[in-house]
Specification:
about 65% helix, f41 fragment of flagellin, N-terminal domain, rod-shaped, two-stranded antiparallel sheet, mainly alpha, 4 strands, about 160 residues
């Protein structure tokens, strides 16, 4: 005759041992990673909130980088505008000098040539100043959005008029 032995106590003990091993493995994983939530099974609502915060943090980090890029743009424009300003001051000084009636015709002509050369250098600055391949001073740099936040509307628009 066929006989089947079944030890119910051993089955319960084995299941309890497997559950205890799983709990110890989970606890060790939590301790070793330092994370309270490893999966949705640990805390579904907490995982959702943590994911949302992570996404927001990533967006704010990108917003910071965008802001730094906008600052770099402003520095490029400011540097070139300072150069134009200094050139205009030099042109003004030369024109005041040229208006002096004690200058001879050669001096006045030389001053006019210098003023013309300076005007040409301003045109070159206006025509060649770019940031990331975009011209800044030809009037085409309008309504350029710098997104600084993770939400719609968290941006600032920058426009630079035509200087030519």
């Amino acid at each position: 005759m066929l006989s089947i032995n079944f030890n119910y106590g051993a089955l319960v003990a084995n299941n309890s041992l497997q559950q205890a091993n799983q709990n110890v493995t989970n606890d060790i994983t939590h301790i070793s990673t330092g994370l309270r939530i490893l999966s949705a099974a640990d805390d579904p609502a907490g995982l959702f909130i943590a994911d949302q915060l992570h996404t927001l943090g990533t967006a704010l980090g990108q917003g910071y980088l965008n802001t730094q890029q906008g600052y770099s743009l402003a520095q490029v424009a400011d540097g070139q505008l300072s150069q134009i300003y200094n050139t205009l001051n030099t042109m003004y000084t030369y024109s005041v000098n040229a208006a002096n009636s004690t200058n001879n015709i050669n001096s006045a002509g030389a001053l006019q040539n210098q003023i013309s050369a300076l005007a040409q250098s301003i045109k070159q600055i206006v025509n060649t100043t770019t940031f990331n391949g975009k011209k800044l001073f030809d009037g085409s740099f309008t309504n350029q959005a710098i997104q600084f936040g993770g939400q719609a509307g968290q941006s600032i628009n920058i426009s630079i008029g035509n200087l030519s």
